[in-house]
Amino acid sequence: MEEDFKNLTLEFTDDGAIAIITMNRPKALNALNSETLQELGAALEACLEPPETMALIITGGGEKAFIAGADISEFKGIETAFEGREAALGGQDAMSSIAAMPIPTIAAINGFALGGGLELALACDLRVASPNAKMGLPEVGLGLIPGYGGTQRLPRLIGEARALDLILTARHVGAEEALSMGLVNRVADNALLEAEQLARSIIKNAPVALGLAKEAVRRGLTGTLNDGLELEADLFGLVSSSKDMKEGVAAFLEKRKPVFQGE
Ligand code: CAA
Q: Which residues are catalytic?
């Protein structure tokens, strides 16, 4: 199954388990203009429609770029602080929709992931980079600051000092350095293929548990440790009432593979 938009494509693997969004604006290295952000929102909704979708991968079309950032040509039209704020909020909404996806999400970074492009990858749960990937938040070089979540998600992921290094120098990091700082989870010659294998290794686990584990980590990071522990206990309670939990435990004790229903 394939659904077409102007600036991206949405496809599903043959078994329908994995949705793949490919950003596709090659003439601007897949830069995110307003239309693309709108289409992304619609594609995120559409990829959840088939009930069998269990994971989402986002990648870039073409050889050169994942996403080279927000579309810089649109910043020319910004005159007031209000308009700038609206532009940031529009991009943040799209990134937050990715972060809030109830299924695991993976960015397959196959080239430049700069500015809003890296911010999109940061909103995903996991990141796989190809050896030629170049990542960075170059906004200060444009007289801007990261506005699609980079100042918040990057330090939460790699720590304040490393995040400030990248944000203040505006430098690009390659795949190996990104791996060493925890910015990406894996480096592989074919990032998309590796992302698919990673998704397969995740979705063999219980779907209810996957959704709740993700929620525990994501929501837990927004509060104190004690709040997070309380949240974990609540969600442990919730997962304990799932059929998947009964199946997983029974399968272990009966020495067989579990068959999860996502209930
Ligand atoms: N917005 C709009 N157009 C872009 C773009 C962007 N972010 N990035 C690249 N393009 C366009 C170029 O203008 C060029 O178009 P033309 O052929 O019409 O001139 C085309 O894509 C190819 O790009 P280059 O010729 O520059 O390719 P290159 O290989 O020489 O350089 C690059 C590649 C290093 C990625 C360079 O294109 C670049 O630096 N791009 C901008 C990266 C950037 O600054 N991103 C941050 C944007 S601001 C942001 O994202 C704010 C935020 O937080 C929300």
A: 119, 139
